[in-house]
Design brief:
The structure holds 2 protein chains of 2 kinds. By secondary structure, chain A is mostly helical. Chain A has one domain (about 20-140, about 155-405, about 435-450). Chain A has helices at about 20-30, 35-65, 80-100, 110-130, 160-195, 195-205, 215-245, 260-285, 295-325, 330-340, 345-355, 365, 370-395, 410-435, 440-445, 445-450, 450-460. Chain B has 2 domains: about 1-35; about 75-180, Cytochrome c-like domain (Cytochrome Bc1 Complex, Chain D, domain 2), CATH 1.10.760. Chain B contains 7 helices and no strands. Chain B is elongated, with a radius of gyration of 27 Å. Classes of the chains: A mainly alpha, B mainly alpha. Chains A and B meet through loops of A and loops of B. Chain B: GO terms for molecular function: electron transfer activity; heme binding; metal ion binding. Chain B: This is Cytochrome c.
């Protein structure tokens, strides 16, 4: 201990008298045990929602996009709203695992696995919208620059929708590789603990023969760092590219240079809110309170508060620039958002995104699990409305008053969205029962610096009477 | 050896994918969205019409814009009248002999010969005989036009292939050939 300096002000990240074996047991417990009734109920609900969504998508593809509420003026509505929403949610996972790794944040270790799983599952949901909002999704492969028999007819690389294809597919594949690399030591742990031949076989395949030698670990660390370094610009560029779908247009309310950073901030904001929602439930149900502590929740709340404030600044900037621009179309676009027929969605967006994260300034609120949970849900509702407001209110009233109209979603719009929520939870529930939801190898690496046991030992050795870290639990 | 297996697998997969192609039938199509016409096409078939053809005859006696009905009847009297009275509407500026030559080569020379001497390719190969030399007949521009329009004896009508203006061009070219024989 004496050779290690750890500031006593830092609170422990692992609570309770946990040793390495306890971490293994705690992480493996949900995987090795049997699902309880609640899990099956939740899974059935999610599966039903998923299947309903499959039905709605099948109906859309079979009958046509006209089953949706989009019209000739508002050609993009719930489809792209949900796409951007899901992509945004995915961003927190990469942010937690990559950016926080670059910043050497130890608290990411208990949450990065689930956050990355969330990224992958939500990007899968997001990726469905660009395909199924197509009029002819069976020709979706034409977006790929594949040599062909139409005189090698290629795509135009000027469209942000094509960049979306590259961004999303790269994002999904890099996230998947990053996630899986991190899973190897944990799968190996499950493999080594497996009792039945079947689970032994499954985790043997999944762990790629990980044996945990020094050379493996050294390369593992390097790969993680390189992937984190790659994933960080990726996470910023992906949502930037998504924002280009709007920012590069000529629509008043869309054509703004602030959109790229503002969308990324919003993505982190909504993504962290989703991580918070999921982890608050998961820590309780999987009995991981010792690893996902109130401090983790508080830190996530702080990130939510910061990004929420960035988003708030962006809203104010947009309003200021609309006024300052002297462009009456731009001014009307914002007047219409605030006082037009969709004023309620603008109000919801403003309340949920600007007001709700500001309550996190109060320590009492940001360290309250119930308050965090509610606010995380509120934030995701708000961020859904942010995308809805940007997309629909800018489209339904723009240059020509003769083209002004309204947008009314149909049950198919809603069904598709509900289906993706169901699919997300189907995947997440399956994940939570078959994958090590905490990167135990990483958590074990901070055991001797950041666990409560070792911190106490260190304090005793140094005769340090600073026990401020234990006052919160 | 492993490479050999891969090649064999590739061959099998390739043959599976190409096995169903039948040269005597149209190939398989992937989502033929706008392959078949919704509208009626000129030479298409449709059960909407009694004879099943989409190309229907116009009402008798109707005159399309830009068309002048030919007023000489298809008979010996008509032929004589056309020969005597019918004159070309083309003036010297609108007679286009190079084009007329092309039309003659396409539609006439196979029987009448490039020079109009009745020694066309089909005659030379003795597919049929009895094509006269232009020099042996008394023809006028009106009679040529009449014959190209209605046909005469073994010759069929060429009104389907050649428009009125083209027939006049050909008639001028025929007279030019005759003068050179």
């Amino acid at each position: 201990m004496s050779s290690h300096y750890e500031a006593p002000i830092r609170k422990p990240l692992i609570i309770g008298d946990k040793n390495y074996h306890d971490v293994t047991v705690d992480v493996a417990r949900p995987v090795e045990g049997r699902a309880n009734k609640q899990w099956w109920i939740a899974f059935s609900i999610a599966l039903a929602a998923f299947l309903w969504g499959v039905g709605c998508v099948a109906y859309t593809v079979g009958t046509g996009i006209g089953t949706w509420g989009s019209n000739k003026t508002v050609g993009w509505a719930w489809d792209i709203t949900n796409f951007v929403w899901w992509v945004g949610i995915g961003h927190a996972g990469t942010l937690i695992s990559a950016v926080l790794l670059l910043f050497r944040q130890k608290w990411r270790m208990a949450i990065n696995r689930s956050a990355e799983a969330m990224t992958i599952f939500s990007v899968i949901q997001a990726a469905m919208f660009p395909v199924f909002h197509m009029g002819r999704p069976w020709l979706a492969y034409w977006v790929m620059p594949i040599p062909n028999q139409f005189g090698s007819l290629w795509v135009n690389f000027n469209s942000p929708l094509l960049w979306d294809v590259f961004a999303i597919s790269t994002y999904l594949s890099v996230s998947l590789v990053f996630w899986w690399t991190g899973l190897l030591p944990d799968f190996a742990m499950l493999r080594d603990r497996a009792i039945t031949p079947f689970t032994k076989r499954v985790y043997s395949i999944l762990s790629f023969g990980w044996s945990g030698r020094a050379k493996d670990w050294q390369r593992f660390e390097e790969v993680s760092l390189v992937l984190a370094g790659l994933a960080t610009p990726l996470v910023l560029s992906v949502h930037t590219i998504v924002s280009f779908d709007f920012a590069t247009s000529v629509i008043p309310g869309w054509h703004t240079t602030i959109l790229p950073p503002y969308f990324v901030a919003g993505a982190i904001f909504s993504g962290f809110a989703m991580v918070n929602t999921l982890l608050i439930i998961m820590r309780k149900l999987s009995h991981l309170e010792a690893y996902i502590t109130i401090q983790h929740i508080e830190l996530m709340n702080i990130v939510i508060m910061i990004t929420g404030s960035i988003v708030g600044c962006a809203y104010i900037t947009e309003l200021f620039v609309a006024w300052y621009s002297g462009v009456e179309y731009e001014q009307y676009a914002f007047l219409n958002r605030a006082t037009g027929p969709y004023w309620w969605s603008y109000l919801l967006m403003m309340t949920c995104n600007v007001v709700s994260p500001q309550v996190m300034w109060f320590k009492k609120i940001r360290t309250s699990i119930m308050a965090s949970f509610i606010i995380s849900l509120v934030v995701n509702i708000g961020m859904w409305f942010e995308r809805f407001v940007i997309i629909v209110t800018s489209l339904h009233r723009d240059y020509l008053p003769s083209s002004w109209t309204m947008f009314q979603p149909t049950f198919v719009d809603a069904g598709f969205f509900i289906g993706t929520i169901g699919f997300f939870f189907v995947l997440f529930l399956l994940y939570s029962r078959s994958f090590p939801v905490i990167a135990q190898a990483e958590v074990k690496s901070i055991m001797k610096t950041s666990s409560e046991t070792y911190k106490r030992k260190r304090d005793q050795e140094h005769g340090n009477d600073n026990h401020s870290h234990s006052e919160n639990h | 050896m492993r490479a050999l297996y891969k090649i064999a697998l590739l061959v099998v997969v390739a043959s599976v994918f190409t096995a169903c192609f039948d040269k005597s039938a149209p190939n398989y199509q992937y989502f033929p969205n706008m392959y078949e016409p919704i509208s009626y096409e000129t030479y298409g078939e449709s059960s909407a019409f009694n004879n099943g053809k989409e190309g229907q005859l116009p009402a008798e006696g109707s005159i399309p814009r830009g068309f002048t009905p030919y007023e000489y009847e298809n008979s010996n009297e008509g032929y004589e009248l056309a020969k005597a009275n019918l004159e070309s509407p083309l003036d010297s500026a609108s007679i286009d002999l190079p084009r007329a030559k092309e039309l003659y080569t396409i539609y006439c020379a196979i029987c009448h010969g490039d020079k109009g001497d009745g020694k066309g390719n089909l005659v030379k190969r003795e597919k049929f005989l009895g094509v006269p030399n232009y020099k042996d007949r008394v023809i006028t521009e009106g009679s040529v036009f009449h014959v190209v329009t209605y046909g005469l004896n073994s010759m069929g009508s060429h009104a389907n292939q050649l428009s009125q203006e083209e027939r006049w061009q050909v008639a001028h070219y025929v007279l030019k050939l005759r003068s050179e024989l």
